[in-house]
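Why should sequence recovery work at all? Because a backbone constrains its sequence more than one might expect. Tight turns favour small or flexible residues, buried strands favour hydrophobic ones, and helices have their own preferences. The token representation captures these environments compactly. In the example below, the structure is given first.
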């Protein structure tokens, strides 16, 4: 068995780790390449997206950069929030339409 040095992004604070079980530090993402025979550690685009070797809540994919299905982010770096239900969206559209019509009627 040979020892390899830990590189940036690796959390090597436990003795006796093997490369396949090394987790990423917070702010870093561990990617699997070559069908699991090798690993790469990359700094996340938004450090808060990668927490304790895992993606933050409701985040998935490479560098934890994507919100999982049913979630969205309003601005870059913000948390993933649950999408509004279809009924909420329809009610909002109807309410807004009523306000527009009322404003138009009030100006004539």
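From this structural description, the recovered sequence reads:
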């Amino acid at each position: 068995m040979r020892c390899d040095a830990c590189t940036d992004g690796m959390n090597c604070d436990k003795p006796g780790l093997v490369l396949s079980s090394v987790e990423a530090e917070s702010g870093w993402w561990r990617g699997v390449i070559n069908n699991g025979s090798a690993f790469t550690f990359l700094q996340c685009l938004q450090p808060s997206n990668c927490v304790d070797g895992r993606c933050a809540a409701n985040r998935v994919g490479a560098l934890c950069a994507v919100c999982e299905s049913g979630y969205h982010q309003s601005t870059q770096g913000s948390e993933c929030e649950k999408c509004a239900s279809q009924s909420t969206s329809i009610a909002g559209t109807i309410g807004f339409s009523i306000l527009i019509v009322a404003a138009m009627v009030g100006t004539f």
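A few observations help interpret the result. The first strand starts at residue 10 and ends at 11.
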